[in-house]
Write a structure and sequence with these properties.
This protein is an alpha+beta fold and 116 residues long. Helix content is 23%, strand content 22%. Strands 1-2-3-5-4 form a 5-stranded antiparallel β-sheet, covered by helices on one side. Bound molecules: adenosine monophosphate. The site of adenosine monophosphate has 12 residues, from loops.
Amino acid sequence: MDCVFCKIVKKEIPTEFLHEDELVVAFRDINPIAPAHVLVIPKKHIGSVADVSESDEKLMGRMILSAKRIAEDLKISGNGYKLLFRVGRHGGQEVGHLHLHLIGGAKLSENIRPVT
Ligand code: AMP
């Protein structure tokens, strides 16, 4: 499958991992929107949250706990951060491999209103 995040998981695209375990990997977003912008992704290909099933409960928990620990490692936890799943077209998802954005290191604006 021609999926950029699958290629990162398989190390076909050289990428420094901030975290790797048997279920997920995490790496810095190539186009960061904040001082700290990390993506946590499952190793197995899942298109989006819309494709997650009950058998993925452990994986989803691992993604969130990994993000929490990375936020602590990056020392952005004290001031807080955002965790974001984009889902599909209206959600603004561009890469069709499930990913959790960890965004922080600065006060973030709210920009989630419908496009007018
Ligand atoms: P989304 O709009 O939620 O699908 O976000 C996809 C994110 O993946 C964007 O923030 C991109 O900057 C990021 N991205 C795309 N390709 C790469 C890559 N090769 N390495 C790191 N981040 C990437």
